[in-house]
Amino acid sequence: MENQLNPDNLPNNLPNLPTRRRFITITSGFIGSLILGDRALGATKPVAKKPVVKKPVVKKPVVKKPVAKATSTPAPSASPSASPSASASPTPPPNTAPDAPVIGKASATGATGATIAFTAPAKNGGAPITSFIATSNPGGIKVTLPQSDSGTFTFAGLTGGTAYTFTVVAVNSVGTSSASAASNEIKTLDVVPASAIAIKKSGVALTLADIEVGKTISATNSATNTNLFVARLGEDSFKGYPTSCTHQGGPLAIQGKTLDCPWHGSKFDAQSGAVTTGPAGSPLTPIKVAALNGALYII
Ligand code: FES
Q: Where is this region: Disordered (predicted)?
């Protein structure tokens, strides 16, 4: 300190003041420096760093926004000039004839009658069905049912003993359907003539089941109660023969495939009645036999 106040120790670069005045000036400056410290000399005070306090991060709860459902909004008309009729319902197709009916079971009900069941088609073509028509084959006999639902035809006037099939069509205001499939085949009952004579065996009507094709059996004429031979030549082919020899009337008997006469040894073919062994010179005279409704008759 003492050294600092010595005017001789003053720096040489002070302004050129009288020595006493420079001393005062220096001294005042020194004292000022003591009072004001470094601030008087323009020193900067170090800035105290504030501790960094990290604020806790508060997580905001995630709130899911409700997803808005897409709603269909009718698109505006592509063309403002489109006419209102553009969105109208399409024109329905024109009506047509019905679909074909479904054929059912056909049954014979006698010598001249039959019934045929059918089912109405699922599609009537857009117009109500007004009737169904069944047709016989053969004969082309037609029967009409004026109705719209399934049903059964009743035929009359068929020919006895004849095989038939039937088809059915449906009719509406537009037209007629295609024909159904053909029915099962039926056979009307045979008409038994009043003059027909039943053939019996052991007192019972002789039937097809009693005689095989190619066989000949002995039977009885129910009208005269006399015997005869009945030969089955085919499924629906029959012949009858008398039981007397054409030579002199001896009694014939079935011996395998021949009808033999014990008197003089003549033999006849059991199916055709032809002489196979003499002395008989004439074949047996055939008797007309037919199967009617499964039974055998002399006709
Ligand atoms: S009567 Fe039959 S062979 Fe003479």
A: 65-105
